[in-house]
Amino acid sequence: MADITYPRHTSSVTTFLPGILLTLAIATLAAGAGNIPWIANLGLGALTLAIVVGIVLGNSVYPRFEPQCHSGVIFAKQKLLRLGIILYGFRLTFQQVLDVGISGILIDVLTLSSTFMLACWVGRRWLKLDRDTVWLIGAGSSICGAAAVLATEPVIKAAPAKVAVAVATVVLFGTAAIFLYPLIWHEVAQVYPAMSAAQFGVYTGSTMHEVAQVVAAGHAISPEAENTAVIAKMLRVMMLAPFLLFIGMQISRTAPQAGGKKTPVTFPWFALLFILVALFNSFNVLPAHWLSYINQADNIILAMAMAALGLTTRFSQLKQAGVRPLLLGLVLFIWLIAGGGAINLAVHQLGI
Prior knowledge:
Structural class: mainly alpha
Order of helices and strands: HHHHHHHHHHHHHHHH
Number of strands: 0
Low-confidence stretches: 1-5
Largest sheet: none
Mean pLDDT: 85
Distance between the termini: 37 Å
Helix content: over 70%
Shape: globular
């Protein structure tokens, strides 16, 4: 959601320290609570607990301290999340990436394109929403949540209020998916035992909104599901650049601006670095105990990022959104679950 701008009194590390320490405290608390047996049995891991605690604090006591903590929280939400995803590559090998392969790419392409086209059709024709709101919500739902919304905004030059509404919808339904997908897996495993945890991980990564939410949901299912979910999601994130190029061409075609400067498209380099780290890890260069330390640090970094995401989630912005944007977000959420599931099953049945 749109970040509130606070004046900067200094550029020193002390500007970021309060917010970073706050997210670290929440991450540490969540990690400890996640080790409690009855909580672990509910499928609530450290990542899920961190975002829940963050949301509770973000809508209660945190606003009092937000001016002091804002810079550090945003740093954790943006920079630490990308670092955490890059380091996640040390848990994977390139062979696992190749295992997702053509089928994973096809699933991502079909899910992305169908979701965005549905957003345009329902949002413009049925709900009579403006183009910018529809495109922002469609981008967030079809690619990578708030990151896609914020990346699309400078391309279409959307108003800040529309950006906040779009981010609010994808955060709301994406957060709900963290708790819903493990329940779906429990039912699918009984009704359709032929589906493996790895295949469900591809479904999770190809249909959930945020990278952080995919990590949390996959983590709550199984390590195998988490690994394939992250790979499928990162392949989807890497489609952000061509998507933005397509949007830019559409705008240039329909409303060319004489003499205007074109907004450069930002490539999601952290997704590429994630793949490169997984490739490096495939050569088994680092000792096992080094990898263990890296993975432990990565767990904390990801939990801090999710705590920051929770702290910046505001229920008040959902009130400002009105009913129609939320309805569009809901329609796309249902499509991602049902339609995305159908796409996954169809591709698996075809044996691609």
